[in-house]
Write a structure and sequence with these properties.
The longest helix has 31 residues. Strand 13 and strand 14 form a beta hairpin. The protein is flat, with a radius of gyration of 41 Å. It has 572 residues and is an alpha+beta fold. The chain is built from 13 helices and 36 strands. It has a domain of 217 residues. The strands form 14 sheets. Strands 24-32-31-25 form a four-stranded antiparallel sheet. Strands 33, 34, 35 and 36 form a four-stranded antiparallel sheet that branches. 28% of the residues lie in helices and 29% in strands. Helix 2 packs across helix 3.
């Protein structure tokens, strides 16, 4: 009994001694490392054990500068400049974190590896990550059904993928905080809602409910939708979700669970898409009134005609309503589209009189050139130019190719005369230029042809164009809209501007001293000089335009110079 007690006493004393020794070591270490980094603490793998605040600052500052000296960083394999991202390090905060990494004397000796505290330009990092979105993001391909001659095939879906900005930002901070030169973007997987077998089971239930041909009517015409087509309007669950429910457990923990959607039977989008195609058959463009002049008054030569548009949203809702009530007909809602130029609107637009006319003669043009002139002129017929608007010929002309009705014909391009789609369109731009000149409108951009072309006599009054440049531009500085109407009579092309005349008069001359020589630009004989200096047929042509107020006072004088090279320099 006595021996047992002695052993117990010695055991307790041993434990007390060992505890005292451990406590002495811990407290001693704790005392020794006051204001120094404790053992086992590192930053980005760089040991700071036993270093003072200043020593740790020097070490981390040196390592961070070395890291930043290599400016290249890789985001998912793509080179990005660290400096462009505004990457820098907060060494003071990093050292403070290292000094505070061990908060208890009994935690001494634990291995703690901290990252650098990173500073960066959040907007630039967002832009860099955002540049990957188009290549990374992928829509969910949900399980689908295809109808083909009464046979229905169910195709399995494919998960989608979306770039996670928050996680990618964290990945960047982690990589740069540990002095790594690369990171990978983080993506989230988006699973399909239903599998193909589940869709097939639901579809069989829907199909067994019975389908029938549906008649769509707008009051004038009927359009039949077969029951096979109707089946393609079914809103299967794969086209709805996913829906998500959140279940919370306490303050910090929650579960996201995907919830399968209810079947809505018919798809709004599928019906609207079908009606978008049907609209091509139903809709009609309005036709503007054709104006003319009689006794100095604007008259309507041809009345406007209203068009028809299909209200797809309203019609889709009507179809959905009929289907939900098992009705066999559904109403298509159409709207009248008023013509922009009509008897009712010309006064409101300020279209009271003819503002200016321009014309040109294309006699002798080959068939393709005549065709292109007619097609090009039609692009501008009925065009409205708002007050203060800058007119651009090439912008309103659009693409010049076979798809837009043009034929190959000679054009001046790259110092030669060569066939190309739209040859002859400069006849149209030249005529528009002459109308703008006659109307006293400010000419903002105009270029003469490279060499004199007989179709554009009198020389000096032409305007060459080629999409997108050179362009013809002028401004509508009147107080009303300008309506452009074009017409071809025989070998003459006309541009007529309707609106409200400016309170000015316009006259032209071939030399500056002959002020007020002629009232129309087509009658001007430009002053020509330097003939032959650039080869046979070369010369310069100069005309002047003079603007007068109502009292006859000259308010503006302008000149238009055309430098024509020798035609011999532009071989066919």
């Amino acid at each position: 009994m006595k021996g047992t007690v002695e052993k117990l006493i010695w055991g307790i004393l041993s434990l007390v001694v060992l505890a005292s020794i451990y406590l002495a070591i811990v407290l001693g270490t704790w005392f020794i490392y006051q204001n120094r980094v404790y053992p086992g603490v590192s930053v980005a793998g760089i040991s700071l054990s036993g270093l003072s605040h200043q020593e740790a600052t020097d070490v981390l500052g040196k390592e961070s500068k070395k890291y930043l000296s290599d400016d290249v960083f890789y985001i998912s394999g793509k080179k990005i400049s660290k400096s462009e991202l505004g990457l820098s390090y907060n060494i003071e905060k990093t050292v403070s974190n290292a000094l505070e990494a061990v908060d208890s004397s009994f935690s001494l000796g634990e291995q703690v590896d901290l990252p650098f505290v990173v500073d960066y330009d959040k907007k630039k990092l967002y832009a860099a990550i955002d540049s990957f979105e188009e290549s990374i993001n992928r829509k969910v391909n949900n399980a689908s059904i295809n109808a083909d001659n009464g046979q229905y095939v169910f195709k399995e879906g494919r998960p989608g993928r979306r770039l996670s900005y928050g996680s990618s930002f964290y990945s960047f901070i982690t990589a740069t905080g540990n002095l790594k030169n690369q990171m990978n973007l983080v993506t989230n997987k988006i699973p399909p809602v239903y599998s193909a077998p589940e869709l097939e089971e639901i579809f069989v239930q829907i199909k067994n409910d019975g389908f029938y041909d549906l008649t769509l009517t707008n009051g004038r015409n009927n359009y039949s939708v077969s029951k096979e087509k109707l089946l393609n309007f079914v809103e299967l669950p794969s086209q709805i979700g996913p829906f998500v429910k959140r279940y919370s457990f306490g303050r910090y923990f929650s579960i996201l669970e995907q919830d399968k959607a209810e079947v809505t039977i018919f798809s709004y989008n599928a019906i609207a898409s079908f009606l978008g195609e049907l609209a091509k058959e139903i809709e009609k463009e309005p036709v503007n009134a054709v104006l003319g002049v009689m006794n100095d008054m604007v008259v309507i030569k041809s009345s406007a005609k209203s068009g028809i548009s299909l209200d797809i949203d309203e019609s889709t809702k009507n179809i959905l309503s009929s289907l939900s009530q098992n009705k066999r007909t559904a109403r298509l809602t159409t709207r009248e589209r008023k013509a922009l130029i009509s008897k009712e609107t010309i006064a409101d637009l300020g279209i009271r009189e003819i503002v200016a006319t321009g014309y040109s003669n294309f006699a002798g043009s080959p068939a393709n050139r005549r065709h292109n002139i007619r097609v090009g002129a039609e692009k501008f017929n009925g065009l409205l130019i708002e007050p203060g608007e800058t007119f651009s010929f090439t912008a309103n002309l659009g693409d010049v190719d076979a798809a837009n009705g043009y034929l190959p014909e000679l054009v001046i391009k790259n110092n030669e005369t060569t066939p190309e789609y739209g040859g002859g369109l400069c006849q149209v731009s030249t005529t528009a230029f002459r109308a703008a000149l006659n109307g006293g409108l400010p000419i903002l951009a105009r270029k003469a042809h490279s060499y004199p072309v007989s179709y554009y006599r009198p020389y000096g009054t032409d305007a060459t164009i080629y999409v997108p440049n050179p362009d013809l531009k002028f401004a509508n500085n009147t107080r009303s809209h300008i309506l452009v109407q074009t017409r071809i009579t025989g070998n003459f092309l006309y541009f007529e501007f309707f609106g409200t005349k400016k309170e000015i008069s316009v006259k032209f001359a071939g030399n500056k001293n002959a002020i007020g020589a002629v009232p129309k630009v087509e009658w001007v004989t430009p002053y020509t000089f330097d003939a032959g200096k650039k080869g046979p047929g070369s010369f310069k042509a100069l005309i002047y335009r003079f603007l007068y107020d109502n009292s006859g006072k000259l308010i503006e004088a302008e000149s238009y110079l055309s430098n024509y090279d020798s035609p011999d320099k532009y071989p066919h």
